[in-house]
From TrEMBL, chains A, B, C, D:
EC number: 1.2.1.11
InterPro entries found in the cross-reference section: ASADH-related (IPR051823), Asp_semi-ald_DH_pep-lack (IPR005676), NAD(P)-bd_dom_sf (IPR036291), Semialdehyde_DH_NAD-bd (IPR000534), Semialdhyde_DH_dimer_dom (IPR012280)
Listed Gene3D superfamilies: Dihydrodipicolinate Reductase, domain 2, NAD(P)-binding Rossmann-like Domain
Any coiled-coil regions, as ranges: none
Protein family: Belongs to the aspartate-semialdehyde dehydrogenase family.
Keyword annotations: NADP, Oxidoreductase
NCBIfam families in UniProt: asd_EA, PRK08664.1
Organism of derivation: Halocatena marina
Domain Semialdehyde dehydrogenase NAD-binding residue range list: 4-131
Gene: asd
Keyword Oxidoreductase: yes
Name of the protein in question: Aspartate-semialdehyde dehydrogenase
Active-site residues, Swiss-Prot/TrEMBL: C150 (acyl-thioester intermediate), H242 (proton acceptor)
Length: 344, 344, 344, 344
């Protein structure tokens, strides 16, 4: 039985990736697209400035875009994927959940709310059960699940793999692609022959979300991980793929061999969009690189390399495709988890 | 009285910057250029692929290039600036010092030798006196002084400014420009829409050189600073200007105001190429940026910004022009210090 | 005696270049800056997102921005430089001229109007006298003079130099920098690892403006040149500097030596901002290049190279700095011409 | 029955693309790889700096590289694909053909020799029969077929489509990707924030090859097309995909509708690598663009757009993937043609 799905905010960069991933998806049938009022009522083809290097799927191109409004969304949609701007998401997503819809959202609002699961399925699928608390406390028939920020998703699988050594401190420096800011987020005059050492709120997001993701759910509450996380975020002139330099300080001794083995053996899930292995560790010291490695595992794998021992842990580099594993693919994967665990 | 000067390895990227800085220099008269045997005997114009965005100075363009060989260098040169490949420098520089020449070198060989001063004049001018040990031990009439690696120079002035708070640990992530690898060091296919998280030996250079630079000279020996330094180096698609994310853990408590004040009030020197102030601290959170800020202080200033308090210190970003402050200008400045302190 | 000057639209990319050129200018004293209503009333520093790689001049930084409205502009301004969006220029510039102001404008409106001089001073200074017709017909006390589009300016000096051979046909293909579209004109996602073979209306502007510029003024009318011009315009990932491939078909026979000699000997003017020579012709076949050559003559020279004979003329490449010679500097130069010829 | 195939010069940029295309090819079985003497004897994985954004096929990675020498190539190879440097190709290819091998070559040597077919199968498959003349005159058992230069291939299908209107003159300006120069052909310092209006010999190649390709084979000789072709070639900062601005002057009148219809209906072939349609014509005025459109038809289609009428013909833009349709894919397609026509 197919699950009917819709996309909230279907014209933006993440919305377009959602279409690319959902159109051929075996479990979901994409039947509804919403966008701003200005776009509503028009065929998708006419209002989306399609910027993916493959054509718009024909069936999608002709779909009429709807308003991002509970009244304009059909009742029989099983699952809504949300890539709304966070201010819109903050307002609309709770309305939709109250109206009974299940929402898998990439928007940054409510990610750290105690009763909202923030999940990377291969890392903390168990957190999904906080939805029971959510329904109980909010009186919703629907449900709201979030995926983390793209820069957080890139590093967290590697951290989860290393946490058996007892992570105490994390330093992370990011080299982020321009697509993370949306189609008009970074102007060419800002970034050609340049780098920008600031992305508003990004460092705070990474520091908080990582601790929530690595935390333990005790049946009622998610107890955040107590590692000290310090992030420094940079935008560089790459199209797709966030590269990160990570230092991890651990309670137990750890060698580069230990770290590589832990990453390589970290288990993936048997979900349609989960790659196997989840983390690919390069031997070559100059990998991963954004242009060469962002499409590993169809853009859903995390790649790592450059492992070195430090005085109290290890350092390494990791990379993921920011609009696939880091955004659209993350939401789709959460949708697959919702389906597997019986929430749809 | 003018000091006569020569450049060893004058055709490369750093050699060209040396020409640009020395030709109008009030203290030095550029009279000799050397290059590889293949270039020797030809006018500079014909063998240098000039790639600076200002014309070759006319008088330089017509100079005949000499071999990089003590026999081919006039005896009456007071000071040689070296931008030789390190394997050539390792062989030729000691020969020249033995033959009585004073060499201010940007090459990476011998930087950590105990009796070779590694200096950033505004930071550790006093280390120059280790030249007495050098002459005594090596029996040289000449002298060899080194400037650090471009990525080390970028951060060390800010670290020196903060060391009154007792630096215990440093994490640094670099976003380095392609010019640091020389004209053909990074191919366009490697770096367009990409970043490379590896520069051979660079992390080790930063970790060692920073401790030597911040060390104390006791009249006989340079006692290296004991801070724990962990560096992660990346190449990104910028032409000039190395940007760095730095975390400093200090013994004493430090606020962002303390850190900014310490940087702003860190003293410069009264040398021709020293900027005043040495460190410019931005209020804007998104600065410094390579393209906008690399020419601060004629490319000799360090700029900083993005200060944030962490659990045990501060984090910030800093930037310097890698082929001016980080290479050619660093050698010239060391030449000015040699002149001021009576070594010429 | 100094001429007091103002800038209409001072916060944009061209407005910032105007400030950079006018602040140290010996003839003009910059006393007024205007911008949109949202910016009016604030210090320039706070409303301009300054993006030039040199600091804002201090005196300018503190100036209070005014509204772009005749009522808000002081009466005693001698000359207004306009870098308004063309729809605003179309409305406001005639109002200002009617109110008695002399306006040197870079905006694209009214460039091909018969009684509006469109001038590159070194090429067609004589066209300025059509201002008498303008005042007569429009009943203005002020005056409106225009400079051409940046892509037109780049090629026209070389065409003027070759026109003694009788130009009959011109093909031109442009490789234009992103700054030509303003700070937010081209998003990074559109242009990294890409080129866009379309700039709305640009080809038509080049085709029309070139014929007007190369035309003859007979005392009453500007008789447009009858050459057939075909332009193809492209945006590429460069910051500044428009590069153009030009083919010229001439009535008379022409060799590459003829063409180079004609360009090199083409006369410049004795105006402050005019470079001498106006056109620099390279011998090297791979020049001019945007990054290396855009600052020739302080950004006011045109550079050319790559001359080849074709079956019926010559082909070559030319380049100019699009926001200096192609925009802000062009307006300033027209201001200098207005001053020299007694219109101020 | 499978055709056994080898690659001459398998480690370079085009060699890697050949591997990517041949490894899954239904007609060819890749059994031999050659490279320079320095690489011979080593596993391919160890000597190729693999730079395609998909992993090296496992079976290929372990193959031992051979010397590019007739003595080191197995006798039972049916077809050799050559991506040798042209000076090596000039020497080695005739030796191999004399030794009985059939060679489909991308190297630039011998492309304009009268008895060497230069083919784009969809355009001039019939030229292949000049191989009879070649064998007769040279006494070869083998055969040598060439594909054109990448910049020539990009435009010729569109020209062939328009030639029913009688092409008399062609002007073409190219915006070429860096991969066309091989992995180390263009340094990053040459091309970031820059464009280079010169590619040695490229303009002459385009002018000659286009006339040969569009010529008619009369059974003995290829009579070159008499159109006057003028090319201007530029390198820009894109990774893959050559974009070209073309003006065509025709004997008969032609509208943009005529031109679009002729391109759209131009027939493709029923060969494995031929796309259908061969030419995709965009309605959107700002397409084709390298990053968005280079993978049309798996990188084998030509895309066109921006049609405008001129005084004596039409102008338009066209694009093709330079290392697939323009090089490796072109050689593979010629191999498919050789197979179809019974030369293997």
């Amino acid at each position: 039985m197919t699950v009917t799905a819709g996309i909230l905010g279907a014209t933006g960069a993440v919305g377009q990736r959602l279409i690319q991933l959902l159109e051929p998806h075996p479990d979901f049938e994409l039947v509804t697209l919403t966008a701003s009022d200005a776009s509503a009522g028009h065929p998708y083809r006419d209002v989306a400035k399609w910027r993916i290097d493959a054509p718009i799927p024909e069936t999608i191109a002709e779909m009429t875009v709807r308003r991002t409004d509970p009244d304009d969304i059909p009742d029989d949609i099983d699952l809504l994927f949300s890539s709304l701007p966070s201010d819109v998401g903050k307002r609309v997503e709770p309305e939709l959940c109250e109206a009974g819809y299940v929402v898998s959202s990439n928007s940054s609002n409510d990610r750290t709310a105690p009763d909202v699961p923030l999940t990377i399925p291969e890392v903390n699928a168990g957190h999904l059960d906080v939805l029971e608390v959510q329904r109980e406390e909010r009186g919703w028939d629907g449900a709201l699940v979030k995926n983390p920020n793209c820069s957080t998703i890139t590093m967290v699988p590697t951290l989860a793999a290393l946490d058996s050594f007892g992570i105490e401190q994390i330093h992370v420096s990011t080299l982020q692609a321009v697509s993370g800011a949306g189609y008009s987020g970074v102007s060419s005059m800002e970034i050609i022959d340049n780098a920008i050492p600031h992305i508003g709120g990004e460092e705070q997001k990474m520091e908080a979300e990582a601790c929530k993701l690595l935390g333990a759910f005790d049946g009622r509450e998610i107890n955040w991980h107590e590692a000290d996380v310090a992030a420094s975020c940079n935008r560089i002139p790459t199209i797709d793929g966030h590269l990160e330099n990570v230092w991890v300080e651990t309670r137990d001794e750890i060698t580069t061999e230990d770290a590589a083995a832990a990453m390589r053996s970290y288990e993936s899930l048997d979900l349609h969009s989960s790659p196997d292995p989840l983390i690919h560790v390069f031997e070559e010291p100059d990998r991963p690189q954004p242009r060469l490695d962002r499409l590993h595992g169809n853009g859903m794998a995390v790649t790592a390399g450059g492992l070195r021992e430090t005085s109290n842990g290890v350092q390494y580099n990791c990379l993921a495709h920011n609009t696939i594993r880091g955004a659209a693919g993350a939401s789709v994967l959460n949708g697959e988890l919702l389906l597997r665990d019986g929430w749809l």
